[in-house]
Amino acid sequence: MIRNVKKTFFSSILAIAMFLAFSGGSVQAAVNIQGLEGVLNNIASKQNNENQKPFLADRNSTEELIDPITGSLTLKQTDIVLPGKDGLDLSIARIYNSSMSEGATKKVTVTSSSSSSTTYSTLGWYVEVTRCYPGSTCSTFYLGPYTSESAAWLVENDYNYSTTNTSYIDFASRFYGQVQTTYSTYTVKTSNIPDKNNYLRSRYDLGTGWFLAFPSVQKEKYSGKTYLTFHDGTGASYSVEFTPDTSDSNLANYEGKDAEFRQIQTNDPVYGFNNSQVSAAYVFVSSDKRRTYFADDGRLVGIQDRFGNQITFKHTNRTVFGNTYPFISEIIDSVGRTVTFTYEDTINATNFNGENIDVLVKDPDNPSHTVSVRYIKDRRNVALLDSNDNVIETFFIPTLWQVVDRAGLVNSFSYQSPSQKVRFMFHTKSLNPSAYTFAILLAEARYPHSRSMYEYGATIRNLGPDGATDAYRVARRYDEVRRYNPNTATSYYTGNDPASNAKINDTSYAYTNDLTGYPTYSSTEVLPTSYLFSSEYMLGSGQKVKRTYNKKMQMVTAEVTTSSNEKKRVTYQEFDSNFKTKPTKLKIEDITSGGTAYNTQYIGQTYTDWGGLQSITQPLTSTQYQNAATKALYTTSFTYEPTYKMLTQKQWYQKAATLLTESYTFDTLGRILTYTNAANETTQYVYAQGPEGFRIEVTKPLENNKQAKSVRIYGPDGKFAFPTISKEYYTDSNNNLVESTSTKTYDLLLGLVRTDTNSEGATTTYSYDDLGRVTSIALPAYTGEDGNDYTMTQKYQYFPYRYSNYYDANNTQIINTVLESYIELQKVGESFGTTYNLQNQIYDGFGNPRQVQTYDDDNGWAITDYRYDKVNRPIYVKDAESNVATYSYDPWESWRKLSMLTGI
């Protein structure tokens, strides 16, 4: 290879330092215009890396996170969970991310004019270093030759990650060849262009800002150079940067050395994988050796665990804006269930009535037994504008409008209208004029019995050292319950108390400074050590939570302030040298309303060479923390096995002379073999393949040298995923070995027990609805005192969209789910039975009981009412005798006072 060196004189509109600041892989020489354009376009896909998230019950499969660093909203909703073999479950979930909600992609085109005037060096390994200064001047120089690639890599790495000089930025890449010198003069111009092609749409087409919670690889090519981004399926993304370091994850900014993203070589005997459509080209190997496979175009093709169980993904081609992309069409999970995706293509139809994606899951043994989910998309007509406000193009983009779940319940979504403009420029901090894309910001998530509302505030962020872009951060979120007015036959939304109409979980957000340093600093690379940025949210209870970060995005402090101005503060004083966000020393203190700190304590943590927790101290005073001997007595240490990073030993001191130990051993596949507790009692595990299926035997020690043994057999009727035979052995008081056996059958679609037959042949039968909720438990038949045979069944019925005529003024007209339960006793051979223990439990959209109605023949209905405050804490209970209990809370939101009033 011959590398050109160009002695260049720039009259540039573009500060090339931008691409050095954000580029993770090797790049062509500074004056390679096509290479420069590629790196610039790769900036936008790396601008935000989201984190992770919590849970609720009309929304019991919903998780929400407001990222404290970026201010973005992430909403994850799990539609289907299919239990699999050895824990290899399959979940069908959706994620909305406001920072990924732009309907078009920020891009730039670079053009140049040039005039051109050549020497060759010796053949070898060289390092090309491009050095850029603030403004528009960059220069390239070469180091070498070096005798080996590893020697060149060390030099390359030193330049790429040097932080000793902030007056310029270096970008280095290694190559093998010769150096040829050429003299040229260049004039570089840029055009900022929004591109209607969007990665999430080309991969999932679920609606702008939404994607399925599956990993994928984004592969972008700009002028011959390929950029890879690994999306982990949670919202986090990492640039792929292959290095010679075999312990490296090859993922930029991935904290840990317990995983690896690697390229698969042709005919690789270890990592080769094929889904019958295409072979895998990349694989992500997690710490437990689970492998996630991707084709050359980045589509997910398979997941395989260390036991050989696998999930296979297949695809169908669809066209978006004239380009053909593969979309998931079928998934076969580890149990043999088939999940199919069926797509409509109606977004450009004249008579548009929505565009559907249907997801259907089939029982592996009974294809007519199915559950399904439907995603219904709406559309928006949008226009792309250049930096002169000229309309480039108008077209339709999809928005996720409704989701019809397995029980036919509907969740709906609406977005800010009109769409928010997102200005951007790569070569200037001024956004007037600018090119535009647009953000589809989620404004309302409407559940069957409640809703969540979101508001945003605009800010400006750096887009590389010379560019800028608009961004949106959550400013407020709140919830409301849904009520129904029978007089007008309409539903409406309020807080828990309709009189005050205070919103539920009303939370406001405020931000100080920005993670990119705008407007004071041009990029994160030139932020001073003292730079801090923070976010704070205030709950409806008056409590505030503030997090402060430094330039490395390390959390510096986390502080909780009550309505009485008392504080609890955690200061992260020191961090691990290898893992920048893992703290090694924390200071914890309470602060009075007057600002005086007290009860100051310290916690120390250390980490393994791959990033696992190695030790942690209890909270200690300064004196205790400084004394090594005392500190050791209050330290818990952890040891791991090297292959799967599983815990093998935990040690801590009960008192000065008593060191306690828990330990684990594992087989070569990472299955637990023994667990020894702190009392030195050992539980043993044995695994074997037998004629009935895969057998797991567990033996536990009991008192007086007795033992208890359990056996689980995973047979073919349970697809070797669920235990079909369970045996229990124990030693009774007479030292006799007692055995009991149960045999289970399963609803394989849901992964739930259908029948359970004991040693005497008596069978309990279970039924479920499509959401997996139990609807009946039929106990074994028995003979009554009258000599007749009876059956007894516990029944449950679920009624959504109900409101009670017996509500008090606070709960009036709230739309709820009613769980009706009762026992039905029936004489064998008769058509009708007798009902006992009738009860209605009435729950709101947050899973809070609003009313419980219990019936008996003597007294009729007994009703208990419940009320909640604006952060959904219980504050009032009134029972059937009109006894009232009220609850109040201290500023730390702990229960403080119970007041009882009798017989109101």
From TrEMBL:
Keywords: Signal. Pfam families: RHS_repeat. InterPro entries: RHS_repeat, YD. Residues 1-29 form the signal peptide. This is RHS repeat protein. The lineage of its organism: Bacteria, Bacillati, Bacillota, Bacilli, Bacillales.
